[in-house]
Amino acid sequence: MTCAACASSVESILSSTEGVQKAEVNFANETVSVEYDPNLTESANFKKALQQIGYDLDLENKSEQEKSLDKEERLQNLKKNVLNAGFLSVPVVILGMFFIDMPYVNYVLWLLTTPVLFKYGKEFFIIAWKQAQHKSVNMDTLVALSTSVAYFYSIFTTLFPEIIRKAGAEPHVYYEAAAVIIFFILLGRFFEEKAKAGTATAIKKLIGLQPKEVILLDENGREKTVALSEIQHGNIILVKPGDKIPVDGQVVEGSSLIDESMLTGEPLPNKKETGSEVFTGTLNQAGSLKIKAGKVGSETVLSQIIKAVEDAQGSKAKIQKLADKIASIFVPIVISISVITLILWLSLASENALGQGIISMVTVLIIACPCALGLATPTAVMVGMGKAAEKGILIKNADSLETAGKINTLVLDKTGTITQGKPVVTNFTWFKNTDKETNAGKLLSLEQRSGHPLAKAIFNYFTDNFGDNPVKGFFFKDEPGKGVKMKFGEMWYFAGNQNYVKEIGLTPPMDSEKFSVFFFTENELIAACNVEDKVKETSVKAIQELQKRGIEIHMLTGDREQNALKIVEETGIKHWKSDTLPADKAEYIRNLRSAGKHVAMVGDGINDSTALAEADISIAMGTGSDIAIDVADMTIVSSDLLKIPTAIKLSKKTLFTIKQNLFWAFIYNIIGIPIAAGILFPATGFLLNPMIAGAAMAMSSVSVVLNSLRLKLIHL
């Protein structure tokens, strides 16, 4: 594809193919996402359809290295065409400008210009012809039309100068315009391709974190160096100091410090020892480790991050839809303007109307460029997404990046979001007439099955104080926002908050404010405990920073009021609600949005998933549940709230860059096309040279890409 109109053509052709529900092209990274019914069509049909209109489709499942080699080969071919076209264009310009009266000079110019157009610029004509056969046009149509008009008019003037004179015009030739236009556009595309390659550096960096070879230990502990692709689940791998961790797994022997900054964005290394989890691409800094492979290949966290970033970079922002619509009708409008320009010159000009009319028509065709429009959004999105990934922020799609910058209200879950998510039991009591030994195993089983962040703390307390003796053969059920329950024999056992106690029909004890979790049956209270979770150091800083930026902070928690008050006092949050069920959280979000607020919700648990889905933008903590992460538009890998101000700032910067790009792309065409048509000629005698127009058109696309690349330099 060579312009945004190409992207529209590809989308149109694929969308009209039988069995296709939706096709979405990303011009910047040259990918297409197609939703289709495999019972009605297959991907090979997409390839055939696109080849008929001059494009192609690579269906091979190539590695990133193979893709890079393909792009490099294409770039080298483009470079060769640029150099050859330039080599021939220079003498054409010199002869055309300084030696035009030399005998047979027009024939020499004709000879030199022909290979520039039809050998080094042949793709313009091939694609334009195929587009025309399907009643479609794109940027190649403009280039082919403008250069062929200049070229064939020059041939006619070379062969029949007297006819031109009889028509009242001077027999000027424009070989240099045709040759130099091809040269400048090829040069512009070369620079554009080089610059576009720079927008994908984040993906390349992530891919570069995966080691190609690993040390596999056999059953006898012997070392063998094998390719990473050979590693399977359960293999034991040796990782020496300075090596990258090759798989997601668990340390079975050794201890070390691991630099996990590529995942979390945090510079300080984390200590790992037997039982610790490690992740692909992180760097082993100190001792040797033996690791049992848990997740390999595409299952690893790093592979999922790479896939998430690739998908996100290929998505379209809402703001891009306007540019796409304009690009799809842009070329026909430009062709119409060029024809009107010629007619006006022939009608209104008194001297050399034909020659100046043709040159103005050619200049209009050349200066008009939908490429900048097509590149404005996706290049900025690609750089923005990559920058976010490097900071440990995964953004699901371009719409999320666009929406994040508009947020003025942030709703936070408490446990695992504001707090560390590592609660500990601070107070535990058995109620009277309780068989501690019998009930300890049942309550242990109840908490062992629960997915709530508090459950692990209670489970650890039970195993430390009453032994590890869970019961078997029970029915378990989660009651989001209330607690959990299980049926053992004929008896139901419950664990949950004070409201759950009341719902079952029991009366909480007089000193119930001391406890956050109760254990009970349908008939009596068994035990109660208080679980506390410390606030993360970075949470207070993040909340203060967000409030300084004018973002309203709310906290929702299923915890009791007393615990919520402690967090509010420590963090300075002004709006909060305790004892909330999942449905309450979702309703709270709906009410905020109804009040006209742009709401982001941050959570990490299954009970947050409904509220996350209700928000304008949902943010999940990377240590949270898979459901929360699946629902979320954005994931903070390190679970550090300070990443949220960073994400919002990056979003605003990216959106501003997109608007800058679109503004300059529109302004360039709004100003350039009338000047090319000769609007300044009656007053000033100025007529834009087609060669200058070609250079300006080529540089407009390059400038948009370079402006997007500036996002790499922003300080977050």
Explained architecture:
The chain has 27 helices and 24 strands. A hairpin with a 3-residue loop joins β18 and β19 (525-532). It folds into 4 domains: 66-201 and 310-381 and 654-713, no CATH class; 232-295, Calcium-transporting ATPase, cytoplasmic transduction domain A (Distorted Sandwich); 394-420 and 534-643, HAD superfamily/HAD-like (Rossmann fold), CATH 3.40.50.1000; 424-530, 3-Layer(aba) Sandwich (Calcium-transporting ATPase, cytoplasmic domain N). It is 53% helix and 16% strand. By secondary structure, it is of the alpha+beta class. The longest helix is centred in the first third of the chain and has 35 residues, at 64-98. The model has no long low-confidence stretch (mean pLDDT 82). α5 packs across α6, α6 runs antiparallel to α8 and α11 (301-313) runs antiparallel to α14 (371-390).
Helix content: 40-55%
What global shape is seen?
elongated
* Poorly predicted regions: none
Q: What is the β-strand count?
A: 24
Strand content: 15-25%
Rg from Cα: 33 Å
For the largest beta-sheet, the strand count, sense and barrel status come to: 7 strands, mixed
Sequence of strands across the biggest β-sheet: 12-24-23-22-13-20-21
Number of domains: 4
Supply the number of helical segments.
27
Structural class: alpha+beta
Calculate the mean pLDDT score and round it.
Answer: 82
